[in-house]
Design brief:
617 residues; alpha+beta; Rossmann fold; 4 domains; six-stranded antiparallel β-sheet
Length: 617
């Protein structure tokens, strides 16, 4: 796991100066090494320079042979690469049989040789998480690409004849070449869903490069992968297939030349990963964050017992509430894009990094693939109900229904219901609506336009797979994966997600929903069946609890001063109306008892994040 940055433009001196500002801005992504290369290329038909910059977090082949930018001495090709290629050993054997010679044991060199030999067709053969830039010396062209599921980030900006790209938004800003004008629609997406909705960012000139796409810089981006079609029937032993693919995925996600840890909760996802690691004889340590007896969702006791049963070393990491304001501020500092999610990931990755761990395995992705969220049950029922109600009745009832819920102190459900009733009654819209934390009406109060064009796939078929594919493309990619990368890399730790191993994803996605649907029992039925006999029955039967932190209590208590500072910053954002911003905070902060905290917290994070990014430049 590393950080990449690049600029293509006409002024060599300007490029070099800007790139040397960009690379230090992502030191946290790679404290082990850095490097630069400047290469002749073309842009818009004219000769220009391509500058490649890199920060290295050494995971495979810790020697200088893994240095980047990596050059192929025979061809002059050059690569900067962030991520891991999990099938690199198979590709290496094939390339060696074809005459390629290797000087390192890294997956980076395998990718460099594969791209040199096969061009962008190599992307169809890669299994891993990655974002990279490749320079082909033969025709002086530059290729950028991002992995199929969007596990690794890549941002781009085109400014006055220059093309810039980087692993982080703040790295592009550090160049001094990208204007910092705010994108009102990007901010609206963040406030509507709690995280920015790609491909937008909060800055007008910066966009997220799409997952599963590549681009030769003088061409348009093209897609190189998509989820397979759902089969009409299943003629395989699905549970056995899932068990073997999960075991295979975990084994190759354990490959590293540095210490590996596992995020262990009380749930089945992380327990399966821990069990597979134990079966593989891997030397790993499990970590669980605890928040004490004061909060009922503490998972330490269950996780401790699980680790003991599996024979894996385990460390519980308690959180002291007195340290929260400082930890919270450092979390905000680590954010590259504002999001209300991810503080839990920040805490657990910090726990691993503090113990010298450089690679952490997470259960992220299992809920989306196997149906672990309540939306898999609630969305189809709600969609059926809405289809029975005439459109004019739905539209007329939306404000009244929302007002009733707000008057009952249920502002969170009111925002979701308002969004759903105002939209279409199809299943896809309902699924997206259930993820809303702020309705279009609330956005308008803050001075923003309604949300339009939320990224989601064109899906059809059974309800389970429609929901699964929307959750993968929407919530998982826009929130979970982006936040996990930012929060883990804030501690110079590589986060790996075995449930998103490409062969596993493709196999599970192709199964009809009836094979995966829980039908009234606990979610993730197929995953539970695959684990039966390999995990304690109590673990297999345990319902999803999640890793919840008492954010609402904290922002009105220990972290109130910090939050009010951040609200003042949010109120001064040019695209927002200041008084309504302050009103949202006051209505939450001054109420006694439980209250929905997502809306005010989103404004806190937005204000703090933008203030921090402005101060860093």
């Amino acid at each position: 796991m590393c950080g990449i940055a690049g600029i293509v433009g006409a002024d060599r001196q300007e490029i070099e100066a800007a790139l040397r500002r960009m690379v230090p801005a992502m030191l946290h992504r790679g404290p082990d090494d850095s490097g630069f290369e400047f290469l002749p290329t073309t842009l818009a038909g004219r000769p220009v320079t391509a500058g490649f910059g890199f920060r290295r977090l050494a995971i495979l082949d810790l020697s200088p042979a893994g240095h980047q930018p990596m050059l192929n001495a025979e061809t002059g090709d050059c690569l900067i690469f962030n991520g891991e290629i999990y099938n690199f050993r198979d590709l290496k054997a094939e390339l060696e049989a074809d005459g390629c010679r290797f000087r390192s044991s890294s997956d980076t060199e395998v990718l460099l040789q594969a791209l040199g030999r096969w061009g962008d067709r190599a992307l169809e053969r890669l299994e891993g998480m990655y974002a990279f830039a490749f320079y082909r010396a033969e025709d002086r062209r530059v290729l950028i690409a991002r992995d199929p599921l969007g596990i690794k980030p890549l941002y781009v900006a085109e400014v006055e004849g220059r093309f810039l790209f980087a692993s982080e938004i703040r790295t592009l800003l550090a160049s001094g070449l990208v204007p910092r004008d705010l994108d009102a629609d990007g901010i609206a997406g963040m406030l509507a869903f709690g995280s920015v909705q790609g491909p937008r960012t909060v800055y007008e000139r910066i966009r997220e490069f799409p997952a599963a796409h590549c681009r030769w810089l003088e061409s348009t981006p093209r897609s190189f992968w998509e989820l397979p079609a759902v089969r009409a029937g299943s003629d395989v032993d699905a549970a056995s297939m899932v068990r073997h693919r999960v075991q295979h995925a975990v084994r190759r996600h354990l490959v590293a030349d540095v210490p590996v840890g596992i995020f262990l909760s009380a749930g089945i996802d992380s327990t399966i990963i821990a069990a597979c690691a134990a079966d593989a004889g891997a030397r790993v340590t499990a970590f669980t964050v605890g928040i004490g007896d004061r909060y009922p969702d503490d998972e330490v006791a269950v996780a401790t017992a699980t680790a003991r049963d599996l024979g894996i070393p385990h460390r519980a990491v308690p959180i002291e509430t007195t340290t929260l304001p400082g930890l919270f501020q450092r979390w905000i500092d680590s954010l590259d894009s504002p999001s209300i999610d991810g503080f839990n990931t920040y805490l657990v990755t910090k726990a691993l990094a503090d113990q010298g761990i450089k690679v952490g395995l997470s259960g992220l992705g299992a809920d989306e693939l196997f149906g672990g969220y309540p939306v898999f049950h609630t969305a189809p029922r709600l969609a059926r109900l809405l289809r029975a109600v005439p459109g004019p009745v739905r539209s007329a009832s939306a404000p009244l229904a929302a007002a009733i819920l707000r008057s009952a102190g249920r502002a969170g459900p009111a925002e979701k219901l308002s969004s759903i009733l105002a939209g279409r009654p199809d299943l896809a819209d309902v699924v997206v609506g259930l993820r809303r934390i702020a309705s279009d009406r609330t956005l308008a109060t803050l001075g923003l336009r309604p949300i339009d064009g939320v990224r989601r796939p064109a899906v059809a078929g059974d309800a389970f797979n429609v929901i699964s594919r929307i959750e993968v493309a929407h919530y998982m990619r826009n929130t979970l994966l982006r936040d996990s990368d930012a929060n883990s890399m804030g501690h110079s730790l590589e986060l790996r997600v075995p449930f998103l191993d490409l062969p596993l994803v493709e196999a599970v996605a192709a199964l009809p929903g009836g094979v995966k649907e829980a039908r009234g029992g606990p979610g993730k039925r197929l995953l539970r069946e695959a684990s039966s006999g390999h995990l304690p029955s109590a673990v297999v039967a345990r319902r999803k609890t999640g890793f919840r932190l008492p954010i609402g209590d904290w922002i009105r208590g220990d972290m109130r001063d910090f939050c009010e500072h951040a609200i003042a910053s949010a109120a001064s954002i040019p695209v927002l109306r200041g008084d309504p911003v302050r009103d949202v905070w006051r209505r939450y902060a001054d109420v006694r008892g439980p209250a929905p905290w997502a809306n005010p917290f989103a404004l806190v994070v937005l204000g703090a994040c933008l203030q921090r990014q402005a101060a860093a430049l």
